[in-house]
Amino acid sequence: MNRSALAMCVLLASLATGAAQATCIYPREPENIPDGATATYDEMVAAQKAVKQFDADISAYNACLDMELNAFLADPNLDEARKIELGAMQAKKNNAAVDHAQAVATRFNEQLRAYKDAQKKE
Predict the structure, then answer these.
(1) pLDDT value, residue 19
(2) Which residues contact 105 (CB under 8 A, 6 or more apart)?
(3) According to the model, what pLDDT value does residue 17 have?
(4) CA distance 56 to 65
(5) What's the rounded Cα separation, in Å, for the pair 13 and 86?
(6) Residue span of the structural domain in which 27 resides
(7) What is the dihedral of CA 21, 23, 26, 27, to 10 degrees?
(8) Distance between CA atoms of 22 and 25, rounded to whole angstroms?
């Protein structure tokens, strides 16, 4: 799933669960993961920091989703079917965010391997 499609899914899911769910802001992935075959050491270090920050931001986003879900579930007027629906939506958002973070980390790791291979050839 590309970035804009994932963002649209998150937006639609947020809207479907109500205004309170929209307070968790989905983080932006790092703008640029350099080509490891031609990148400098500083570029790779900067990319690594950005990927780690994105992972931390995804964790914070998922923690926010958990807090929002718990707030919804604490509502005594919420029926059981709606609680189940909200829990399922939260799980899908969480899983999508974790998958996205993993995909970004995988792309970075591929470029890191390319960078290390290029350094061996020098």
Answers:
(1) 43
(2) 51, 55
(3) 46
(4) 14
(5) 10
(6) 3-121
(7) -160
(8) 7
The pTM is what? 0.76
Q: How many domains does the chain have?
A: 1
Q: Say which residue, 53 or 20, is predicted with more confidence.
A: 53
- Tens of pLDDT, residue by residue over 48-68, are 999 999 999 999 999 999 999
pLDDT at site 122:
74
Q: What would you report as the CA-atom Rg of the chain, rounded to the nearest whole angstrom? A: 18
DSSP at 28: P
CA distances from 105 to 64, 83, 101, 113 (A): 22, 33, 6, 12
Kindly tell me the sign of the dihedral angle through the C-alpha atoms of 48, 49, 54, 57: positive
- CATH number of the domain encompassing residue 25: 1.20.58
